[in-house]
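Need a sequence for this fold. Nothing fancy.
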């Protein structure tokens, strides 16, 4: 019997694998949370598929998303990234990634971990919207609005409410798998 999935992931095996193994699964480790923060911020204005297909290139280019290293990137490293055809070469997004790494570390120092900070907005447990169709899934919510506002206040960039909501979906802060999706079993 064929598995029923959320309709957005049926483009190809890369998308299906991401849907089946990662999307909507709760993530509590800071390293993975930061990786998704970087990827989601690069997605702004682009498709998630574009980012996902370049994920390994991003991983290599950004030192496996090591936020300690990224926070200290030099102008030379930024130019190297700007010349890397394997990633999205957007100077503002690259600079934002460096800033976001620095601010991520500040949040860790304040809260003990970035995970405690971000999961604190929803009481530490995943929300479940139980959508029947993809049309039932919003692009933003009051919670993503609040997180976005707080992240911006803390100096992070490219963290609008839509980016934050996508991050919440990716890291399992909200389960937006449709009711008929096999993941719900």
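Here you go.
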């Amino acid at each position: 019997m064929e598995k029923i999935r959320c309709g957005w992931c049926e483009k190809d095996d890369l998308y299906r694998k991401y849907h089946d193994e990662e999307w909507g699964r709760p993530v509590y480790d800071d390293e993975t949370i930061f990786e998704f923060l970087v990827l989601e911020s690069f997605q702004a204005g682009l498709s998630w598929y574009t980012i996902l297909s370049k994920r390994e290139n991003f991983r290599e280019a950004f030192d496996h998303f090591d936020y300690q290293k990224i926070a200290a990137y030099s102008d030379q490293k930024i130019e190297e990234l700007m010349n890397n055809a394997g990633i999205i070469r957007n100077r503002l997004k690259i600079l934002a990634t460096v800033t976001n790494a620095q601010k991520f570390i500040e949040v860790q120092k304040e809260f003990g971990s970035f995970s405690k900070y971000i999961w604190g907005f929803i009481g530490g447990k995943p929300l479940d919207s139980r959508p029947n169709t993809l049309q039932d899934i919003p692009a933003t919510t009051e919670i993503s609005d609040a997180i976005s506002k707080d992240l911006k206040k803390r100096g992070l960039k490219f963290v609008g409410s839509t980016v934050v909501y996508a991050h919440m979906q990716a890291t399992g802060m909200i389960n937006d798998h449709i009711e008929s999706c096999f993941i719900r079993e």
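For context: The mean pLDDT is 96.
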